[in-house]
Amino acid sequence: MRIARFSHQEGIKYGIVDETDLVVLSGDPMFAGFEPTGERVPLADAALLAPVIPRSKVVCVGRNYADHAAELGNELPAEPMLFFKPNTAVIGPGDAIVRPKQTSLTSFEGELAVVIGRIAKNVPAESAMDYVFGYTIANDITARDLQKTDGQWARAKGFDTFCPLGPAIETEFSFDGARITTTVNGEVKQDGPISDMIFSVAEIIEYASAAFTLLPGDVVLTGTPAGVGPFEAGDIIDVEITGLGRLRNIARDA
Predict the structure, then answer these.
(1) Rounded CA gap, 129 and 171, in Å?
(2) Is 80 exceeded by the pLDDT of residue 32?
(3) Judgement on whether residues 33 and 75 belong to the same structural domain of the protein
(4) In sequence order, what are the residues at sequence separation of 6 or more whose Cβ sits closer than 8 angstroms to the Cβ of residue 73?
(5) How many Å apart are CA 251 and CA 235, to the nearest integer?
(6) What pLDDT is recorded for position 79?
(7) Is 53 a domain residue?
(8) What's 8's domain CATH number?
C-alpha cells in the first residue's frame, strides 16, 4: 500500500495511491489509524507534500555504505554513526532546496528512509521491523564545507529544506534487488544496491532505540552509496529507489 500526503482545495489530507487517483483517508495513518472516507481525488489535481512531517526527529546514519566512506577518505564505523536533522529541514517533492548564504558547497545524498509506526525503545533487531510503518525516499542535503569547518554536523545537515522526502510511503517495500539512483540534470551520479548497507534497518533501529525513544512518525535515513557530489542553483536532482518511485527537487540560492 502506498500512502501519500497531499493538498487539495486548500486542505491537507492523506490518501492511498490507486493508479491515477488518491483514495482519501480519515485521520493520520501513523498516529490514530485511518479509514477510507469514500472520496477520491485525481492525482493530477493534487499537490504531493512530504509524506510525513516528523513531530519529533529525523535520525540519520552516516557512512553506512563502504564505497561512500571510501570516496570521502573515511574509515568504516564499528557501530552505526548517528546524527539528527531537525523536522524543520523536511520538504516534499517539487519543493525547492535552498542553498543558504553560509555555504558555497552543497551536496546531494540519495537515501532510503524508514518511517517509524510505533513507539520503539530498546527494541531488539529480531523484532525491529514490527516497528516500521513504511519506507520512502530521502535526499540528505549537506553543506560539505560547513561539515568540515564546524567539526560536527548539526548545521551542515540541518538547514531548512535540507531533508527532501517523498513522494509517498510504501508499506510493503521489497529490499530484493532495490537500488538507489541519483541524477543531476539527467546525469547519473549515484547508482548502488541497498543490499550494500553495512548496518541493516533492523540493526539501526536496535542501536538507535537503545539510546533514545523512536516515536511514530519519526524518520530514519539509512545512509547513501558512493557518488555524492555538489549541485548548484537551478539543478534538478532526482533520487529514485526501486519500488518507491522518484523524488525530484530543484535547487535555488537563498
Answers:
(1) 11
(2) no
(3) no
(4) none
(5) 6
(6) 97
(7) no
(8) 2.30.30.370
- Average pLDDT of the segment spanning 18-45: 92
Residue 56: predicted pLDDT: 93
In degrees, rounded to 5, the angle at the alpha carbon of residue 245 between the alpha carbons of residues 29 and 51 is: 30
Indicate the length of the chain as a whole number.
254
Cut 0.90: pTM above it = yes
Mean pLDDT of 176-199: 97
Q: What is the rounded distance in angstroms from the CA atom of residue 170 to the CA atom of residue 139?
A: 17
Residues whose CB falls within 8 Å of the CB of residue 26, separated by 6 or more in sequence, listed in order:
34, 35, 36, 37
d(CA 26, CA 39): 10
For residues 84 and 187, the answer to whether their CB atoms sit within 8 Å is no
What is the domain-level CATH number for residue 191? 3.90.850.10
- The answer to whether 190 and 224 have CB atoms below 8 angstroms apart is yes
Q: 57: which 3 cell numbers?
A: 526527529
